[in-house]
Amino acid sequence: MKNRKYLLPIAATGIVALALTGCSSSDSGSGDASVDCAKYESYGKHDGKTVSVYSTIVDLEATNLEKTWAAFEQCTGATIKYEGSKEFETQIGVRAKAGNAPNIAIFPQPGLMADQARAGNLKKAPQAVSDAVDKNWSADWKKYGTVDGVFYTAPMLANVKGYVWYAPKTFEDKGWTVPKTWDEMMDLSKEIADEGAMKPWCAGFESGEATGWPGTDWIEDVVLRAQGPEVYDQWVSHGIPFNDPKIVDAFDKAGDILLDDKMVNGGFGDVRSILTTGFAQAGQPVLDGQCAMHHQANFQASNWPEGTSVAPDGDVWAFMTPPIDESKGQAITGGGEMVGAYSDAPEVQAFQAYLASSEFANDRVKLGGVISANKGLDPANAQTELDKLSIQLLQDENTVFRFDGSDLMPGAVGSNSFWKGIVSWINGTPAKQVADSIEGSWPKS
Fold first, then answer.
1. How far apart are alpha carbons 310 and 330 in whole angstroms?
2. Is the CATH code 3.40.50.300 the one for domain 163-320+410-441?
């Protein structure tokens, strides 16, 4: 549930089957004549075969996925039977155990994928998929799809977290400059708080059963920027305990903002209103002039009201949460999907390889609303300035990228005790006590 964070809480679950006719490499036959099937020759012909796909992706984004792979269906003869569900995280394990797993699952959390791999349910990725990932993705991304030395799942789409949203006109009118370091950001926050015209920050961590997850993003950003990627990796893999002093310090540093009534919660109330403010609505006070900044991922762009201009000179824009220790370099956190298979049938393997290709990434990004860390993606295909910026950050060799920490942790922690710990913390439980509790929940095996 955590990864599809940018999907507003609108229940929509469905199964869509598209059956399109095959085509030759030079002609799309009775299908769309504009499709160049030469690009799909390497995937072979799979006439009459069906590949079932299950994921968290619903609504418009599901429709755009189906549009993207329609050419694959047309040119290979395969039919992709898609099902999107907001119950994916709880149901995928149940279905696998019952022998009713899909051919392909699109996992929003590497930790959940690893559970399925260790249970012996997932098939090892074929060589064609491994080669595609080696060509189109960084080694870090391939690592997220590898469990106990075996490569299972290829990355698909991505998101960039840690953006700080603001209104450029407000900053210009007030004479504020975009901070380049954490200390500068804190100095600006204190200046805004002292002025008293608005709160420096607005935040919302409410998300139904997943309430608390936006707070985990704050902690992850601080750990990576203050301690660097090595400590971050040790933390998410339990190489150091969750209650290590470095992690408790990250809570305290984030708490300088989130636990201070002078800093939050613009437009909503005191600190505790963070827990009753829906994450999708939490940034609105930036537009209303009731707060100056809001911390949320690139998918916040879809949460602004229709007609809002998202641009450097628009109604809202964003800067990346600045470094805490500048010696650690440009560091960002993010997320994405991992494509795993419960079948090794040829048509399934072909579709896996296609989803890891630059062709898929470019065609899907052209439709808008998503980005990818695929190195073959042309940033010019992005539909917004923010998406272009995010892609450039992901493709920059100097960027240190780390996957969302809670998505990498075991489910008992990442999508359970960590979320609940954030709720307790905002409600006043000391950081050390929260960290101790989360550490106690870490699976022993």
1. 23
2. no
Q: Tell me, yes or no, if the two domains 14-160+335-395 and 163-320+410-441 fold the same way.
A: yes
Task: Identify whether the C-beta of residue 50 lies closer than 8 Å to the C-beta of residue 18.
Answer: no
Nearest to 112 by CA among 445, 417, 409: 409
Terminal Cα distance for the chain, rounded: 24
Q: How far apart are CA 109 and CA 403, in angstroms?
A: 9
The pairing of strands 104-107 and 154-160 is unpaired
Burial of 445 (0-12, 13-18, 19+ CB in 10 A): exposed
Q: What percent of the chain has pLDDT over 90?
A: 81
Report domain extents, the chain: 14-160+335-395, 163-320+410-441
Closest alpha carbon to 219 in 197, 239, 244, 188? 244
Alpha helices in 137-181 (DSSP H): 139-144, 168-174
Name the residue among 188, 251, 264 with its Cα closest to residue 216.
Answer: 251
Spelled out in words, what is the top-level CATH class assigned to the domain 14-160+335-395? alpha beta
Taking only the tens place, the pLDDT of each residue in 90-99 is: 899 999 999 9
pLDDT at 28: 37
Is pLDDT of 302 > 80? yes
Q: What integer best gives the mean pLDDT of the chain? A: 91
Under the banding of pLDDT at 50, 70 and 90, the label for residue 23 is: very low
| Phi, psi at 68, each rounded to 5° | -65, -45
Which pLDDT score, from 0 to 100, does residue 210 have? 87
* CA 149/CA 165 separation, integer angstroms: 39
